[in-house]
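W.,

You were right to be curious about this one. When I first looked at the sequence I had no strong expectations either way, so I just let the prediction run and decided to look at it fresh. Below is the sequence, 189 residues in total, followed by the output.
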Amino acid sequence: MAESSASATVAQHGQPDIVSKRDFLKLTLGAGAAIGVCAIAWPFIDSMNPSRDVLALSSVEVDLTPITEGMGITVVWRGKPIFVRHLTTKEYDEAANTPLNQLIEPIPAADRVKPNHHQWIILIGICTHLGCIPLGNKPTDPRGEWGGWFCPCHGSQYDTVGRVRHGPAPLNLWLPPYAFESDTKIKIG
C-alpha cells in the first residue's frame, strides 16, 4: 500500500516528493542572500531620513513671557526667520480699522491673528517680492509709514499685521502654522 501511494505521487508530479540536499541548499542560500541584501540596504535607506537636528527644528516652541507690548523677536523655524510681535492695542486697532480697498492684498486684520490672541502677530519674515528679510523687529529698525516692517531692498512696506501697503511686494507676509499652547507659549510648526 505504501508503494502504491509513493508511485501515485511520482505519477502526478513526475518526481518523487523528497526534498533533496540541493533544494535545501538553494533555499538556505536564497534566504541568506535576501538577509544580506536587507542588511546592506538598511543603513543606506535609513540615511535618507531627516537628521535629528532637522527633526528638532520641524517645530519650535516660543515663550512669549519676556516679549513686552510693542516688542518683537525673531526666531528660526525650518531655516526661515519668524517674526513674533506683541502688538499694542493702538497698533492692532489701526490695522483693524484700515479700509480693505487701501490694501494691495485685502485681508482683514482679524484673519491674520488667532481668535482671542489679537495682540500677537506671528509671520514668516521673508519679503514676498524677492525673498529679502524686512527690517522692523528691532526697536531701532525702520518700520515704514505703517509701523510694521520695511524691506530696504526695493522699498516694500508692511503694516503691523504683515499686510503689504506699499512697494513691489505683491502679497502679504505669510503666516506660519502655529498654535497657542497656553497664553504665554506658542508652538510653530
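Here's what jumped out at me. The chain has two domains: 2-46, 54-188. And, maybe more interesting for your project: The helical segments are 2-13, 21-46, 52-56, 89-96.

Coffee later to discuss?

I.
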